[in-house]
Amino acid sequence: MLTPKQREQLAKLNRDIAKKHRREAGAKLTTANQMNRPNADAAGLLYTSLSDVVPGTVHRSAGGTYYLVQREVERLCADGGELDRGLRRALSGSTLAVSPDQLHEAVRPLVGARPERVLFLDIETCGFIGVPLFLVGLMGFQNGKLVMRQFLARNYAEEGPLLAAMWDTLRQTDVLVSFNGKSFDLPMILDRSSVNGIFDCPTPSAHVDLLHEARRRWGHELPNCCLQTVEQFICGRRRSGDIPSSEIPEVYHQFVRTADDGEPHIRARCLRQLQSVVHHNALDIITLGELVVHILT
Residue 272, exposed/middle/buried by CB under 10 A (0-12, 13-18, 19+)? Predict the structure, then answer.
């Protein structure tokens, strides 16, 4: 645990970095707008609304609002139906080639878990300690379907309501699945919840961090165990045109800055970039599901 002094030092460092990102974002947006304005859609329309590029609904929680993007995974990607069926079989233990006690103890909670009580988690933030968290993605079975739910803060003030809604969802979970979530995602969520005055944080009884299992299984044969490396070599999929993680904080700051008074072409560009972030988050979570199928097969 960080001491209060260490937390404040990290928070100050990240605030300084965030300010620098926002200044650079404004300069880059102006230059990009002058050089290459984004194309309109086929009908000649220029999107300036979040719902145009990321369809979702506004919800109220903890005295504020947040934006929810909810889609069935079967409709979200070409292999979504296969992932739905594969996860059900894997969690039941029917595809397991060894007995459960031969698995590492860290992943055993997955075997025999009720599908509707398992959630896959990934988050997007503006940096590290002391800066906002703006997107929480959760994938799980809901009403018989594998569903992707992404909780998005459209501005910095919506972080609290987003987190409150996320915790309400986690109350119904027995097993949480993440990638480096024990070291980053969950501590970040807990820190930002505390900042927003949220202290009722019912963490699931089991947290399966797939980074550690990836290192155990494939660490000696892969170049590294970053999520996209594991995705490429184990899941057999290479991403094309994905937004680099290092650019995500800047994209979010740009999106917030242009919410009300951005020039239309700049606003359209920011929306497209945010759409890429939401897509990136969804791909990360889908990969978690695929890795569980590989691990339990």
Answer: middle
Structural domain boundaries in the chain: 53-295
Q: What is the pLDDT of residue 89?
A: 97
- Cβ atoms within 10 Å of 276's Cβ, excluding its own: 17
3-state helix, strand, coil in the chain (%, to 5): 50, 15, 30
> Is beta strand 175-178 parallel, antiparallel or unpaired with respect to 118-125?
parallel
Query: What's this model's pTM, rounded to 2 decimal places?
Result: 0.85
* Nearest CA-CA partner of 212 in 227, 223, 200: 227
Q: Which residues pair with 146 in a beta bridge?
A: 141
According to CATH, the superfamily of the domain at 53-295 is Ribonuclease H-like superfamily/Ribonuclease H (3.30.420.10)
How far, in Å, CA of 123 to CA of 127, rounded? 11
Q: Which residue in this structure is represented by tokens 């860290």? A: 106
Beta bridge pairs of residue 72:
147
Nearest to 291 by CA among 240, 224, 215, 187: 215
- Report the side by side order of strands in the sheet with 64-72: 57-61, 64-72, 145-152, 133-142, 118-125, 175-178, 206-209
Average pLDDT of the residues in 2-29? 48
Across 245-249, average pLDDT: 95
Summary mean pLDDT of the chain: 87
Q: In 3D, which of 58, 54, 77, 79 has the Cα closest to residue 67?
A: 58
Predicted local confidence at residue 9, as pLDDT: 54
